Amino acid sequence: MVDLYPSRVGQNTKILERQDPVIFKNSKNSKGPVKNEDLTFYEENGYLLFKNLFSEEEVRFMKEELAQVMEANRHCETDEVIKEAGSNDVRSVFEVHKNSDFFKRLSENDRLVAVAQQLLGSSVYITQSRINFKPGFKGKEFYWHSDFETWHVEDGMPNMRAVSCSIILTDNYEYNGPLMLIPGSHKWYISCAGETPANNYKNSLKKQELGVPDNDSLKWLVDQAGGQIDTATGPAGSVLFFECNTMHGSSGNISPFPRSNVFFVYNSIENKLQAPFSRSSPRPEFLANRTNITPINRRKEGIHANWVQNPSYV
Hints:
Structural class: alpha+beta
Number of strands: 13
CATH topology of the domain at 64-268: Jelly Rolls
Distance between the termini: 40 Å
Helix content: 10-25%
CATH architecture of the domain at 64-268: Sandwich
Strand order of the largest sheet: 2-11-7-13-5-4-3
Strand content: 15-25%
Largest sheet: 7 strands, antiparallel
Number of helices: 8
């Protein structure tokens, strides 16, 4: 397969133009809950934030499930559980859509999948899921990066036809390490310097050092955005969808207020993973789902079968 987005193939950084549409359309999946003006915003900026997409009661239930997952994995030493560098604090727990019936149902919820299908113009499947924890006072930063760069180079995702979905479970303020995004950055691809060593994921999940843009490229992207960096702030229950190539990151959390979210990556069923473009061995299944791939059947009920969902895409 032709590599449309070469990266980590030398010692020089390059800025390449995007080769894929931002919103994919076809007759079957072009309709959905996202309004035309929001689609225009997404195409221009690379993200959408829907506030209060889940109710307070649903958020409370999600928090209870999250706490159980965190406690169950506190002393776990498997690859799926990422600990903070220099401590034993849980940073992320991966593959929750397979290891938890609750989060599997949540990943199939109509409020989420309908948006992903509309943006990607096809049926979708989960290629990665995780829970992220950023505790108060000591939550570590996530440096600037495009998810697609890693998914392309290390996982073999051919095209920019995936969308990340972050369900905000704690109120996100400007001061507790919310996700920051460079609007419009998804229109460009930063081909990064360096080479990918074997099993790079074991280090990158704790602190990513390869596949990150250099300072000049980051400044160029921000300049293209008119000097603007957006933050995904909002109440618990809000949901952020951001394009797979949108440059994003988050600062450390030295406030007393923790931040946590559930993270699903919806990939088009027409964009299944191939051999990694780095010509290395594929990353493990918990990072990049390859087996038993089938389209998601949307669940139209609330996250609890007895609840009636009342989505509000605002």
